[in-house]
Structures are given as structure tokens and as C-alpha cells.
Amino acid sequence: MTLTSFGPANRIARAPETHPLTWRLRDDAEPVWLEEYQSKNGYTAARKALADFAPDDLVQSVKDSGLKGRGGAGFPTGVKWGLMPKDESLNIRYLLCNADEMEPNTWKDRLLMEQLPHLLIEGMLISARALKAYRGYIFLRGEYVTAARHLSRAIDEAKAAGLLGKNILGSGFDFELFVHTGAGRYICGEETALINSLEGRRANPRSKPPFPAAVGVWGKPTCVNNVETLCNVPAIVLNGNDWYKGLAREGSDDHGTKLMGFSGKVKNPGLWELPFGVTARELFEDYAGGMRDGYTLKCWQPGGAGTGFLLPEHLDAQMYAGGIGKVGTRMGTGLAMAVDHTVNMVSLLRNLEEFFARESCGWCTPCRDGLPWSVKLLHSLEKRQGTREDIDTLLGLVNFLGPGKTFCAHAPGAVEPLGSAIKYFREEFEAGVAPTSAAPVPGLGQPQPIPAGA
Fold it and tell me: Which parts of the sequence belong to the NADH-ubiquinone oxidoreductase 51kDa subunit iron-sulphur binding domain (predicted)?
């Protein structure tokens, strides 16, 4: 299955004015190489940036656009760029692209890298100019073999065309770009763990401050941005901030468009570029087509495995950080997952927490010991061998591993779905207390009747 067959993205009219990330996609899902990319206005923004903008002007433009990070944290990109030192003597600076896309249920960056590799390269070229960075690295998830091959070919094409290397387009600006494939650790999505891994060290997060903008790769000023974030930069430079802000729906304080999706037992699982502020119901019903015949929606996650579960009644929430925040969780990566009525939440959470426990770097005690503890308790409840105290202990772990209580954001993201699952489906956890003569728990070995009208 090709990525673009995940949904109707190719069957919806896309235009540069409304779909800056995806309008160049081919209907056959083949990569857009240099000649075709340039015929579709490719590198026009880079030429404009190099000829008409000073580096500080580029930083200010991105800051004024309101572009925020698309990796899940949502930090303002222009503000992050502005943290780089102004001292011109610090002439060795790095731009890192975080392409270590290991968030379960997320594949948005893969689409861009496999089918529009030159869009990422152009975005990095402009960003490097703004940051005065002379070298860039695309830190790529090792399993993305096709993306690595396509990016490497696109880099070679750009070099041959004078779009990378020395004195790019006669501007006097030099920028080299390399693809670095990682060894496959979820923790590398944390920017300082990524930096450590790039340096050949163990992928542990670093203590901050100092932040990477001051002391990053090999001790030099470094900026780390997500793939989708960098791919927004060319359109902002080309079309301006007012246009970019006007893309979002009314009510959203996030600007531009976002790659959003829905997976699970929906009729049309897919990935679409949509304006911030669309409702989750629109994404679920109009784009994903609702649940398959015979299944009903039990709950959903709005943006990857590290976001809290929401109920069907929350589908009217707008898809932007503040909109999802109003119903109690985070926007995350914007790729939602539908959980159907046959799934037992204890089993689902045990599976999720096993992943997070395995991917912990082990640097801090709450994460290293707390996540395996949650897995052990969930195993007991799944086997109906748990105690009521186990549920209280799980809630205690949700608190002890929450934001600000661990070395990085790995553990808080890991326990957020656990806390929400207990909040909304506590009876399924209580059904795992032994001994019990309660009715069968959905998903634990017995088929469930399909509700009338499903």
C-alpha cells in the first residue's frame, strides 16, 4: 500500500494557495524529482530568500507567521530560531532535521520525505540561511529505507544544480546537507537525545540549560526542527505571513495547515493536509468516513500514542493545540486513532505501556522503574489477577511520572493515555480485580454483540 492510498488526498483539489505542503504530490505517488519540482515553483522561495532577505529578516518573517513546531510540542519556530546566538564569531552552526518519526500511529513525515524530498531540502536551505548554519543533518529513522534513498538522490540532484554546497546560486552562502540514519530509538525524538546519538553517544536527553541553541552538536550552536515544520518555510517566504495566517479556520490560534489523519477501523484511513481549526468530527466523518460497518467508536486519540483518550462526544473539538486542550489532552502530531467497541482498554494500555517502557532510555528513576511497574500491574489486571490497590497505584504513577517530574517528556507522554483511560473506562480496570464474577470484559476472549443501529 502506498502512502497516498491511505486516503482521498489525491482526489481532493489541491492548490498552492490552500495546500502548500501537498499540492505538488503526484497522483501515482511517485517522488517529485528536481526537474518536476522546479516546474512546480520549486526553489523559487529559496532564490527569493537568498537574494532578498537578510538572515535576521527571515527569522522575523517566520516569527511573525506564527509557525509552530509540527513534531508534537508546538513551540513557536521563529522564537526558537531567535535563540541562536547573534555573535558573528560563532560561525560554526548546525541545523538538524528531526526525522526520527517513531511516534506510534504517525507517518506524516514519511509521506513528505518519500514523495517530496526537495520540499524538505528547500525548507532546510532557507532555514539554514536564517540561522547562518553552514551544515545540516537529516536525522532519519533507520527503518525509513525508502525515505533515505529518495532524500539521498534529491541531495545529489540539488548539489549538481548548485542548490547545495559552496556559494549557492552565487549568493556567497555555503550549506552542506547529509542524511544520517538512526539506530531506532523512540527517545531520539527528544532533541538533545538526538544530538547525543548524532555524535555517536548513547541517546540520553541532556540537562538543560544550556539549550542546543547555545551548546548543541559538538558544542556548537544548533537548531533542531521537525520535517513538517521545515517544509512549511518555503511557502511562508514565497507568499507572506498574512496569507499563511489566513489558511487556518476561525477560532484557531494556530496558523497555517497541518497534516492530519485517522487510523483504526475507519472506512477510509488516511492522511490529509487540512487547515488548523477543522473539527475532529469533520476529520473523522468527512475524510475518514466514520467507522467501518459493524463497528462503533468507543474512544479516540487525537495525535499519537502519547496523547490522552477522548470520547465520541469530544469530536466537535477543533483540531489545534488550544482546541484539543479544552477537552483535556494535547494535539500531538495530529494523526488520530479510532478505538472501536471490541477493544478492551486494559489490553490496549498494556500494549502501549510496554512500548513506552521498552523505549525509555533509563536515565531517570521515575521513567526507568515507573513504566515497567505500570506494565506489570496492567498485566495482572488483564489476566484478572489484579487488586483494587493496583488501580490506585497506576493513578499514583500517572501523577509521579507527570510533567515536570522526570528528566524529559517521555514519561509524561507515556502515562497521559493511561490516566485518561482509567478516567473514562475505570470499570474495565476494575473488572480485572480478582476474584470476580462480573460480566465478560470486551475484548478479553469473548466476542461482543454489535449494538443495534451500528
Answer: 346-391
